């Protein structure tokens, strides 16, 4: 199969990033856009453009029928979903396939098996992959939740069964906090995912968030591409990621790769995916967290240390091409890489700050990569995630990367909306981050110090 024209069912930096690879492969590109994005960067980059609706995501980027009409009208061969929006919607994937188009993503059945956290936990236990202690199913009443809490023990995390991206999560440390959070978390889950079911997991204190990039090939083999650490988070959402994870021993890394491979093989995974784990720094134990059945925001750091283009590999797999497992499996990372997510938001309160970008000057130089979705004159609207760009740095080792990241952040000149670029200085100067022994609470401590 030859893919000649591809529609990217997304916007912003990820649409721009996919278009760049398509251009290198000689594939025509089609952008879809809402009324709010009519003059945006991803629209300017595409060969063809199709309006799909009004500004609200529910009336445009989340409108399956509108996206499918755009695909039919523009005569594409394939659809790439990027991340977010419809990227993990198996109904969307099935409808694309029913139209005779190529879905650049995993099989819908694999997506279904990982879409809800409780069944996914059960599946992983069946595969011999450890999961965080928690309820075996959803907790449908407050009384059920309180009884389960006594069995599991505080602190715990109340989680949406259909959640992702840090949404629909509440850490609770007592019955009183659980009573306060239960209904609120269910409402948040219903609004965000259309599913208000929640379950309980033991909260691992002093935890690291480690993930493994996998690639399921058409031969049914799974290549493990490498690992990343994603523990710099605010409100359970990632801000900075690095590859490889800095403090794992080789035996821990080997064990982690075997577990990630088991996960992908269990669900017969095809294409690029990420298996996420919680790592208890005290006990040195890993627990399966979830599998993201799509391209991750942080994929550039893996590309920088491996020299691979994950979007290109996604397209080749979707087109039915057979790839060389020996070339892709467990490559030795070359140097170190860090990605910082540049958001249009207040760096202390984390509140989005829409507005017109009046200055935009990206840093450049050896090892610096900026994946951006905006330029000077563009408008950051309140309708979508406020991610502006991903500032990535690659160098021979982690110490060099930390220095280079600090310099690149200072050179990144953005005015108009507030940005979180000021956080970089605090992160790279934090002793726990410098020695690699940081955990998911580090950024909270940095922000408290900054605002004190």
UniProtKB/TrEMBL annotation:
Residues 2-448 form the Biotin carboxylation domain. Keywords: ATP-binding, Biotin, Ligase, Nucleotide-binding. One of its GO terms (molecular function) is metal ion binding. It holds the Pfam family CPSase_L_D2. Its EC number is 6.3.4.14. InterPro entries: ATP-grasp, BC-like_N, Biotin_carboxylase_complex, Biotin_carboxylation_dom, Biotin_COase_C, CPAse_ATP-bd, PreATP-grasp_dom_sf, Rudment_hybrid_motif. Residues 121-319 form the ATP-grasp domain. This is biotin carboxylase. It comes from Brevibacterium jeotgali.
